[in-house]
Design a protein that fits this description.
The complex is a heterotrimer of chains A (136), B (147) and C (872). Chain B has a domain of 100 residues: 2-Layer Sandwich (Nucleotidyltransferase, domain 5), CATH 3.30.420.270. Chain B contains three helices and six strands. Chain C contains 40 helices and no strands. Chain C is flat, with a radius of gyration of 37 Å. Classes of the chains: A alpha/beta (136), B alpha/beta (147), C mainly alpha (872). Chains A and B meet through helix 1, strand 1, helix 2 and helix 3 of A and helix 1, strand 1, strand 5, helix 3 and strand 6 of B. Strand 1 of chain A pairs antiparallel with strand 6 of chain B.
């Protein structure tokens, strides 16, 4: 009987899935040419421009019509973006939750930084974030 | 009791073959790990994982056991493979697992090709996800908006 | 007739020789038909005997084309091109040969006018030159050189360059150099042919082939014949005084030439026989100059050809004169002159000879008697050719009277001729006397002929100086006083075209003249081609006057007056519809004025608010689209009047008008928005394209365009859209007219001014709008208003976005665009958060929100915003 038990134990051990703490961001890539609602205001996206990493840091810039700010790191970026967001009860935000955000990493920047930028936008509460096309 | 041990070995062999060895799909990729990650759980559904791995100078795209090179033809082949899988099961989410140290301009074309293939094959219902590590337990639900 | 066809009423620039060429053509047609048939027959025979001849096909092809052009068979050429396109032909000469055939068709057609003839001849020369150049080593080029010489001879010397006139004694000095130059060119071609003959290797040509035969004929017949003819003509043209010995020498040469020509007659292609005849006459006239009897005998063989007969008689008379029988000569010529049924061209030649003979006989050239042959010719000419003859006679009179001062002793036509000559050809001579003469003749009515001639000349002169207002007056008066002449109709049309163009360019400038012209055209010229639209224009003018009177008077117009205006508007609309159905010149359509009249009538009536709620849509809709210019003027006048009088607005509409420009931004009017955005975009385009040229005028024009934008903004009223079907119909109509309307401005007079002052969107924009509206969904949808409104809003939104993208951020146009985008979003229910967010961003960009009036308009969004409803 104990042999069978050991067998089953071996079996379950073998089939355990070794997953680490892998999580996801849901991403909808912007498709070109889709007709949005023609009568709605079409806003130019708020761009998060991520630069090439220099040692430990990379340059982060936030750009939109009339708004241009640099951030030291992604935390401050997230804070700044959240402050710019229109929230219930606070009427002076510049961007709605559904305002399109575009993460624009430089061609030589790292994927880590690009995802960091994406993450900052998600943290700040925006819902419509995309990656920009890389220009070679 | 020798006849019983034969049966036991048979069962072991049978169960080993049937059991899914989870490690196969997850080659070692050091995913990006943002601080204060605002990610969502991957869920336990089966998923289609596309890996973008750095291999020295080159980048390799892999889908399950198949490997593709990181150029036009490779991406196209990858896209075809994805499209095939999606057509079979349109509810399959497509995950992109890219190494954190890869250059953006190596990852983005693959991302784009995958997304195009997936949406062409499956239409609006296909989910595409970017994978990252989350060491923290705090999560808030994020729903991306379909365009 | 477009204003661009502005020519003097002398549309037929025909001199006598141009009538000779067709006569010769007729002669040649019969001969060449035979030639064609004969060559066809011989070709058949040759075919049976010969070894294969590659060049035969090419030569026969050329013969065929020549036959087509000689016979005037344009449709045959078209058929040929259609069935065997020249682009697909194996022989690459085909394209050029066919082009030359086409040019010759034009040249040999009797209805071609002189300017077109010159152009066609140039084209022919050019094409042939390129053909020869491309095939410089081809033996056929020898033939082509000779062809060039022949064409230069027949079409040039005898056709355009006045060769016959030169032979018969050039009446106007300018003819001689032209004729000589033409003869030089013929000789050049003949020389080129000879040198080509020597340089091109003949070994390539198969012996006995058609090509060889032709080359032989060429060398033996055509070329020597042409060379001899050239020499004969040179002798005939040269009338310089010479010593007796020189004269004898000349006569001897001419006698030799005569013999040569007679010998060669049998060796030239039949089509050249008439030219050979002419050469013989010319040579004979010189050779037998002092032996009139022999010359008379030589006439016998030429009795068939009237032209040659007359020419011979003229030359004979000249011989008589040289011989001392001046009186006989004059008698002969005078008899000839009064021959009934003499073609005018020949009569003109005879008159030339007569005048010359009188001069030769020692009589003064400037007496009435001397000049009377020409005047008589003019009077005897047919009405249809009178214009051309008049021009020819005036030229001749001026030629003979060059240097003579204008003198009341001279016949009126002579004085007019001198005046014309001075004004056209001597810009340095004082113009006052000449103009005074012309004016005095044009202002008197005793001598009708002088009056009409003077008016015609004045019109020509003013046209040449681009003094269009004066030219228009002249044309009109000519039409009035020479109403029985066919040319009067053309003149009337020309006057009308000019006046209309001037009116469009400067609507307040010449109303009285326009009115007079229109009145004359509508009442006395029933056969005018543009009669329906003319009458419509006239009615429109009267209506316009009515409107202006109303606006100028200090009291409100009475109900009767308004009713009269409404009736006028209805009349104009009917006329315009008729004109449109008849597809007349759209540039003269009166739709704009018709609808402006209608609109004005509506607005001036006390119950206009009611009127606006009816289905009188074409008015209001078209106001927004096509009539903005007139409507704008009307409104501006109204506003000015109200401001001047300090009167309070009489009605809700007046209040709105007085409250502009902010008001236009708060009313729901998608069409207004469409129009204003389109208009703004158009102005930006215009300003940009004009500034790009950089010169001072264009920048000023660009400024004016932008000023017009501003002014227009201020006057745009708010309106509502009602019934869709009428609107759709109007737009469909506009779409049909769009292309035509845009292309109707040909007059250099009006165009540049017009473009720089045109304040509204182009018809093209509205054509696109029509396309947007024409979907079946909209037409069939029962909730018409909604769908239409959405369509218009979509359009306006797209235009606004486009505009924002094209101008500098922060400019006036950019702010307009922002306001409009936000309004559309809000009004169609897509507002709320997004509008607020945009407003906040605009404020961050510029705390003053662009200044007035944008700030007020934008602030309204924030006060009417609904509280944020939370994120999605």
């Amino acid at each position: 009987m104990i042999d069978v038990v050991f067998l089953l134990l071996v079996f379950f051990v073998c089939t355990v899935r070794f997953e680490r703490n892998e999580k996801v961001y849901r991403l909808d890539l912007p498709s070109r040419g889709i007709t949005a609602d023609p009568l709605a205001l079409q806003d130019a996206p708020l761009q998060i421009i991520v630069g090439i990493r220099d040692g430990d840091r990379c340059s982060i810039e936030l750009r939109a019509d009339g708004v241009r700010r640099t951030a030291e790191n992604f935390d401050t970026l997230a804070t700044a973006m959240e402050q710019l967001r229109r929230r219930p009860g606070v009427a002076d935000g510049l961007f709605e939750t559904s305002h399109p955000i575009l993460v624009v990493p430089a061609a030589g920047s790292q994927w880590q930084d690009a995802v960091d930028g994406f993450n900052a936008a998600v943290r700040a509460g925006y819902a419509n974030i995309g990656f920009a096309e890389s220009k070679r | 009791m020798t006849p019983l041990i034969d049966l036991a070995f048979l069962l072991i062999v049978f169960f080993i073959l049937v059991a899914r060895m989870g490690g196969e799909q997850l080659p070692p990729v050091s995913l990006p790990e943002p601080r204060h990650a605002a990610t969502t759980s991957a869920g336990s559904r089966p998923r289609l994982a596309v890996n973008v791995i750095a291999n020295g100078d080159q980048t390799i795209l892999s889908l399950g056991a198949k490997k593709f090179s990181d150029d036009e033809s490779g991406r196209r082949a990858l896209a075809d493979a994805i499209a095939q899988r999606i057509r079979r099961d349109p509810t399959l989410p497509v995950d992109i697992r890219a190494d954190r140290s890869l250059r953006y301009d190596k990852v983005e074309p693959a991302l784009r090709a995958i997304a195009q293939a997936a949406s062409q094959a499956g239409g609006q219902g296909v989910t595409i996800r970017v994978c990252a590590l989350d060491q923290q337990t705090a999560i808030h639900e994020q729903k991306a908006k379909h365009e | 007739m477009q204003t661009s066809d502005l020519r003097s009423p002398n549309g037929e620039h025909s001199h006598a020789p141009n009538q000779i060429a067709p006569a010769m053509t007729n002669l040649r047609i019969n001969i060449s038909l035979c030639a064609l048939l004969i060559s066809g027959l011989t070709a058949q025979n040759a075919l049976a005997q010969e070894a294969p001849d590659p060049t035969r096909a090419q030569i026969l092809e050329e013969d065929f084309l020549r036959g087509i052009s000689d016979l005037g068979l344009a449709h045959a050429l078209e058929d040929l091109e259609r069935t065997e396109p020249s682009t697909a032909a194996a022989d690459r000469t085909t394209t050029r040969l066919r082009s030359m055939a086409l040019s010759r068709l034009i040249l040999t057609s009797p209805t071609t006018l002189l300017p077109d003839r010159v152009i066609a001849f140039d084209q022919l020369r050019k094409t042939r030159k390129s053909l020869i150049k491309a095939y410089a080593n081809d033996p056929r080029s020898i033939l082509w050189f000779t062809d060039a010489a022949e064409d230069e001879f027949v079409l040039g010397f005898l056709g355009i360059d006045g060769g016959v006139e030169a032979i018969a004694g050039a009446p106007v000095a300018e003819i001689l150099p032209r004729a000589s130059a033409s003869l030089d060119r013929i000789e050049q071609h003949l020389d080129s042919a000879s040198s080509a003959e020597q340089t091109i290797t003949k070994t390539a040509i198969p012996a006995g082939s058609l090509l060889a035969q032709r080359l032989e004929d060429d060398a033996d017949g055509r070329r020597p014949m042409l060379a001899a003819a050239v020499k004969a003509f040179r002798l005939a043209i040269d009338r310089s005084t010479q010593s007796a010995e020189q004269q004898r020498d000349r006569q001897a040469k001419a006698a030799l030439l005569l013999k040569t020509i007679t010998q060669l007659r049998s060796q030239i292609p039949p089509r050249l026989r008439p030219e050979a005849d002419l050469a013989e006459v010319a040579a004979a006239s010189v050779a037998m100059q002092s032996d009139i009897a022999r010359f008379g005998a030589a006439r016998v063989m030429l009795v068939d050809d009237p032209m040659l007969t007359v020419l011979t008689k003229i030359l004979a008379a000249e011989s008589l004169m040289n011989d001392g029988h001046g009186i006989d000569a004059l008698k002969q010529l005078s008899t000839l002159l009064v021959t009934p049924n003499l073609p005018t061209a020949l009569r003109l030649l005879t008159a030339d000879a007569l005048v010359r003979s009188r001069v030769f006989a020692g009589k003064s050239a400037t007496t009435e008697q001397s000049l009377s042959p020409w005047i008589m010719t003019l009077r005897a000419s047919q009405p249809l050719e009178r214009a051309g003859v008049r021009r020819a006679v005036l030229e001749r009179l001026a030629g003979v009277l060059r240097g003579v001062r204008i003198d009341t002793e001279l016949p009126p036509l002579a004085m007019i001729a001198i005046a014309r000559d001075n004004l056209l050809k001597n810009p340095n001579s004082p113009a006052d006397l000449a103009l005074a003469t012309l004016n005095s003749f044009s202002n008197q009515s005793i001598d009708a002929e002088a009056q009409s001639t003077a008016l015609e000349v004045l019109a020509e002169i003013h046209s040449s100086k681009s003094d269009w207002p004066a030219a228009a007056d002249d044309y009109r008066r000519f039409a009035e006083c020479a109403a029985q002449e066919p040319m009067a109709l053309t003149s009337m049309q020309t006057a009308l075209d000019i006046e209309l163009a001037l009116d469009r360019a400067n609507p307040n400038g010449r109303e009285e003249n326009l009115e007079r012209t229109l009145a004359l055209a509508s009442t006395r010229f029933a056969e005018l081609p543009s009669r329906p639209s003319t009458v419509a224009q006239w009615e429109a003018l009267k209506a316009r006057r009515m409107i202006q009177d109303f606006l100028a008077q200090s009291t409100a117009p009475s109900a009767d007056q308004v009713a009269a205006l409404s009736q006028a508007a209805a009349r104009i609309e009917d006329l315009d519809r008729a004109a449109r159905n008849a597809r007349l010149d759209p540039g003269s359509r009166v739709s704009a004025t018709a609808y402006a009249a209608r609109v004005a009538a509506d607005f001036l009536s006390p119950s206009h608010e009611q009127a606006m709620r009816t289905d009188e849509i074409p008015t209001i809709a078209l106001w927004n689209t096509w009539t903005m210019y007139d409507a704008q003027r009307i409104l501006r006048l109204r506003l000015e009047r109200a401001a001047r009088q300090g009167t309070p607005p009489r009605s809700a509409l007046d209040r709105e008008l007085a409250g502009l420009p902010a008001s236009f931004m708060t009313e729901e009017n998608p069409m207004a928005m469409t129009c204003i955005v389109d208009f703004a975009r158009r102005q930006v385009d215009l300003a940009a394209s004009m500034s790009a040229t950089g010169n001072a005028n264009s920048i000023i024009a660009a400024q004016r365009a932008l000023d017009a934008l501003e002014a227009w903004e201020n006057l745009f009223p708010s309106l509502e859209t009602h019934s869709t079907s009428a609107l759709t119909e109007s737009f469909a109509r506009l779409a049909a007219d769009a292309a035509i309307y845009e292309n109707s401005w040909d007059s250099a007079v009006a165009r540049s001014d017009w473009i720089t002052t045109k304040p509204w969107a182009t018809i093209d924009d509205f054509r696109r709008l029509t396309e947007a509206l024409s979907s079946a969904e909209i037409a069939a949808n029962s909730t018409k208003n909604t769908t239409l409104r959405d369509a218009l809003r979509t359009r306006a939104m797209a235009s606004a976005r486009d505009l924002a993208g094209r101008v500098v951020q922060g400019s006036k146009e950019w702010w307009i665009s922002q306001v409009i985008q936000m309004r559309i979003a809000q009004e169609s229910g897509r507002g709320g958060e997004s509008v607020q967010a945009r407003l906040a961003r605009l404020r961050a960009l510029d705390p003053a929100l662009g200044g007035e009036p944008y700030r007020t308009a934008l602030e309204k969004f924030s006060s009417t915003a609904s509280p944020p409803s939370g994120s999605l």
